[in-house]
Write a structure and sequence with these properties.
With 707 residues, this protein is of the alpha/beta class. The chain is 41% helix and 13% strand. The protein folds into four domains: 353 residues, Rossmann fold, CATH 3.40.50.720; 180 residues, Rossmann fold (3-Layer(aba) Sandwich); 64 residues; 47 residues, cAMP-dependent Protein Kinase, Chain A, CATH 1.20.890. Helix 5 packs parallel to helix 7. It is elongated and about 160 Å long.
Length: 707
């Protein structure tokens, strides 16, 4: 069978391809198109586009060559629907729609029939009231004796308590919402293929709020719960029922409609795809969904209640609303997985029954019992599709080797809980490792001073072995001949790794000599030397005794994971973390809402640039300080020289002042005056007084220059 899936690379398209690819007769040939780039399943035989008229024509031919065409309104517009209807030889724009020809296969022969399935949403029923339901009229038996066909049942005796597909003509969407368009598009499809001589059998599948396979509507709920962000809230009162369905179960209903040749679109044109829970609660409530998701992924917690937003203002009585199809561009589409789409789904209040095709025994449910009953499977699907992996790592090493700092850095980077190992009570540590947060996000466990015995007690358990059939047959009788009870058969146990999913996938062991640990301890200034000595001795007794198994031996021999030995000598805290990160991401880097590799590289580059900038500033400051010191030394030297001169002068002055006048004159005045008088007598100047005064001044200046 040839099947065409419109937009096969979307969330719904991928689920359809999975379920329609194979049936009891073998593999089907899947064709499709994609309006966004990339992501199409590899099993799609041919991808078509309509970027230009030539490609659009080939796409029309591919659609007409298929036996089944599936289109979902979640990812298609009115133009897409018009294109598919035109490809199936119908003019949808004419009033009423008319046929434009016969659908032929690739050999030019007229095809017997083509099945067209339009996937819509239960949101089209959002404003429907149980009191407004109109019971379908039972079809009259063809010969007066045959019972009504499947789906053409008579009206029940009492009023309906839930919506079912037989009331499809009563569905009413919220006024002025995009689901008014969807309803008109559903009606358009039914009108186009209800023409005389039509080769196409058309059906509409109304899907409940879709979940599973990585999520779309509930993406924000799962994401916030996985990250531990407490953004969840319940819109008061929270008791509204929300019909849900796993996307694979919706696709399996589409498959049932495709392969069921007994269906007649005139009597059964509409099918509801919702979960079947039980008779008393056909749909989970808003409170149950939010608490179920948050409790499974992040543990039970109190979720705040908020008031419902005010209802939309209806149209004035005098105002005429244009037809929904004509105002398509004026109604914004909601991004799948957005908070607006989630709020819209959480406001729904419908009790719905699944299609009778889904209630048949041969229908293979993927998520039997609904979302809440299979919440762990759905959460694991979300983690697998979104590439979310639990990063479980244990970090050990001698005291003061940097375990605490490294554990904190790993916890912050991978956004995983930081736990400390309780050596005296391994059960309390095991309870933490078994929590919902650690199950989905992982943990970083500080091993402290643990050795082989401590980690073995934490990660291993005793499991009872099944009884050997041969030993059971050879068991002694219930009573002995003396009437005494038979000996008690001892149960056999096997000690092995815990199957609770708590064993770490990564083990990091810091390598540091004792002298380096002491130096780091003294530099940190925390704790006493005596306490450090006790911790070092305790760690050595558990891990450094020859012939005795240690922490590394447990993970290498028992847990079968390699131990990353990390020497810390000469490494900074950033280097230690980067080595650990590369080790943990060596196999495959998980998505885990972490920064991308480019962002990490940019961050490291920015840190290096900042570090270089700080180093340059420090070097510049040091150089400036050296230059300033040289200047200060020169100024200080000049000041000292000046002080020395002043001191010498003051000492000389003090010595002069200490002399008597007679002694002063005899020592400093009389010799010079005598020489000046002798020279004056030899020269005999015209003005002896001036000559003598000039002589004494010159002699004083000469002596001062010599001194």
């Amino acid at each position: 069978m040839r099947i065409f899936v419109y937009n096969c690379n979307t969330y719904i398209g991928k689920a359809l391809v999975k379920e329609l690819r194979k049936d009891e007769r073998g593999y089907n040939r899947i064709f499709g198109c994609q309006t966004a780039a990339g992501g199409a399943p590899p099993t799609v035989k041919r991808l078509s586009t309509r970027d230009d008229p030539k490609k659009a024509k080939k796409m029309e031919e591919a659609i007409r060559s298929c036996n089944v065409v599936v289109l979902d309104l979640f990812n298609c517009t009115l133009k897409d629907l018009y294109f598919v209807l035109s490809a199936l030889k119908v003019d949808p724009k004419s009033n009423p729609p008319r046929r434009t020809g016969d659908i032929e296969d690739k050999d030019g022969n007229k095809k017997d029939s083509v099945t067209f399935i339009l996937i819509s949403s239960a949101m089209v029923w959002a404003n429907t009231q149980l009191g407004d339901l109109v019971e379908p009229v039972a079809a009259e038996p063809a010969d007066g004796g045959e019972p009504p066909a499947d789906g053409e049942v008579a009206a029940p005796s009492g009023p309906p308590t839930a919506f079912s597909e037989k009331y499809w003509q009563s569905r009413t969407p919220v006024a002025r919402s995009r689901y008014e368009q969807w309803k008109e598009m559903e009606q358009l499809v039914q009108t186009c293929f209800s023409l005389e001589g039509s080769q196409v059998k058309s059906y509409v599948v109304g899907a409940g709020i879709l979940y599973g396979e990585g999520e779309e509507t509930f993406t924000q709920l799962f994401k916030d719960a996985w990250l531990g962000i407490e953004n969840h809230s319940i819109t008061s009162p929270g008791t509204n029922h929300i019909p849900t369905v796993h996307v694979r179960d919706m696709a399996r209903l589409v498959r049932s409609v495709c392969y069921n040749q007994e269906l007649n679109p005139e009597s059964r044109p509409y099918f509801l795809a919702v979960d079947k829970i039980d008779e008393d609660a056909p749909a989970p409530t808003q409170v149950e969904i939010i608490k179920g998701i948050v409790g499974e992924v992040n543990g039970a917690r109190e979720i705040p209640m908020v008031e419902a937003p005010p209802a939309a203002v209806p149209l004035e009585e005098t105002e005429e609303a244009p037809p929904a199809l004509l105002r398509e561009a004026s109604i914004p589409e909601l991004e799948p997985g957005s908070s607006e789409a989630l709020a819209e789904a959480m406001a729904l209040n419908l009790k719905m029954e699944p299609s009778s095709l889904m209630l048949q025994e041969e229908f293979e449910w993927h998520c039997r019992g609904g979302l809440l009953k299979n919440i762990r499977m759905v959460a694991e699907e979300f983690s697998a599709q979104r590439e979310l992996r639990a990063m479980r790592v244990i970090i050990g090493g001698p005291p003061a080797s940097g375990k605490n700092t490294l554990c904190k850095a790993v916890s912050d980077h991978f956004n995983i809980p930081l736990l400390g190992m309780n050596l005296d009570d391994p059960d309390s540590t095991r309870k933490q490792l078994c929590s919902e947060v650690c199950r989905y996000r992982g943990y970083v466990l500080n091993a402290g001073l643990a050795g082989w015995e401590e980690v073995e007690a934490l990660f291993c358990k005793d499991y009872e072995l099944p009884v050997d059939p041969e030993e059971e047959e050879a068991a002694p009788p219930q009573e002995t001949e003396d009437g005494e009870p038979p000996p008690v058969v001892e149960k056999k146990y096997e000690r092995r790794l815990s199957d609770e999913g708590i064993v770490p996938a990564f083990a990091v062991l810091l390598q540091a000599p004792e002298a380096l640990c002491r130096a780091r301890h003294n530099a940190a200034g925390k704790g006493t030397a005596q306490k450090l000595q006790q911790d070092v001795a305790q760690f050595a007794a558990r891990n450094l005794v020859d012939g005795q198994p240690n922490l590394a031996d447990f993970f290498q021999d028992t847990a079968k994971i390699g131990v990353f030995n990390l020497p810390i000598a000469g490494k900074s805290e950033e280097d230690m973390f980067e080595s650990t990160r590369i080790y943990m991401e060596s196999a495959k880097r998980p998505f885990n809402y972490l920064p991308s590799a480019d962002e990490v590289a940019e961050e490291l580059l920015a840190k290096q640039v900042e570090k270089d900038k700080i180093s340059a500033m420090k070097a510049e400051t040091a150089e400036r300080q050296v230059s300033q010191q040289v200047v200060n030394d020169a100024v200080c030297k000049r000041h000292l020289d000046r002080l020395r001169v002043i001191g010498t002068h003051e000492s000389e002055q003090a010595a002069l002042e200490a002399l008597s006048l007679r002694e002063y004159l005899l020592r400093y005045m009389v010799p010079n005056l005598t020489e000046g008088l002798i020279e004056m007598c030899m020269v005999l100047p015209d003005n002896p007084v001036d000559y003598l005064a000039n002589y004494l001044e010159q002699h004083a200046a000469h002596e001062q220059s010599e001194n």
